[in-house]
Design a protein that fits this description.
Number of domains: 2
Largest sheet: 4 strands, mixed
Strand content: 5-15%
Order of helices and strands: HHHHEHEEEH
């Protein structure tokens, strides 16, 4: 890629020919277009790679769902259809939660500004109250320093054991944690409880004798 160098030194009373100016403008347009094409090609390659990974993940999930159905069917034959169906529901729930963790983890890795904005929103009062230490994953250290760089009272400390989306703030008012993985665990616990509740209701309905 050719670079254009334009001298900024004064040229006295000499006049620059119009043809030379037009030539420089044409060269600048070609240079700008070459940059645009280069960026667009890199973006296309990146989106293509993301699409391939998404298709692979979907294919793997479909395969696992088929395996779950097969296991449920086999259990249904040996232990009764109802037991096999309940086991299949539980396995499908665990599969959905695992895929959710993968998607959230990849999203946080590709878009670290998501967690940085969440930190600023949730810990605003603690960070504004005085000196504090923000402990982040090692992969988030550079972006956190850039994001909170103007706040000299905020010390950024990397922690290699932290997973994407996990942070801890230590301030005068105490220590506070934020972990997206814990949110998913809470969602999973809630869904498992709801599944058990529905199963209990279904069992109760089955045991109620029909009125003659």
């Amino acid at each position: 890629m050719q670079r254009i160098q334009v001298s900024l030194e004064p040229i006295g009373d000499a006049c620059v020919p119009i043809s030379q100016i037009k030539s420089l403008l044409r060269e600048a347009k070609r240079y700008r277009r070459s940059i645009f094409l280069s960026v667009r090609k890199r973006g296309a390659r990146y989106l293509g790679a993301m699409r391939v990974r998404a298709i692979q993940r979907l294919s793997q999930a479909q395969l696992e769902v088929e395996q779950i159905r097969a296991r449920a069917s086999e259990q249904g034959r040996s232990e009764g259809y109802r037991i096999g169906l309940e086991s299949g529901k539980s396995d499908c729930l665990e599969l959905v939660l695992r895929i959710a963790r993968e998607v959230v983890g990849e999203e946080l890795s590709l878009r670290p500004e998501v967690i940085l904005k969440r930190i600023e929103r949730d810990f605003r009062s603690q960070m504004e109250s005085g000196a504090c230490e923000l402990i982040v994953p090692l992969t988030l250290e550079a972006r956190a320093n850039e994001y909170f760089g103007k706040r000299t009272h905020v010390k950024i400390t990397p922690e290699e054991k932290f997973v994407p989306g996990e942070v801890r703030l230590e301030s005068r008012s105490g220590a506070f944690s934020l972990c997206f993985d814990e949110y998913l665990n809470c969602i999973g616990t809630s869904l498992r409880g709801e599944l058990a509740r529905v199963h209990h209701v279904e069992e109760s309905v089955r045991r109620v004798p029909l009125e003659e």
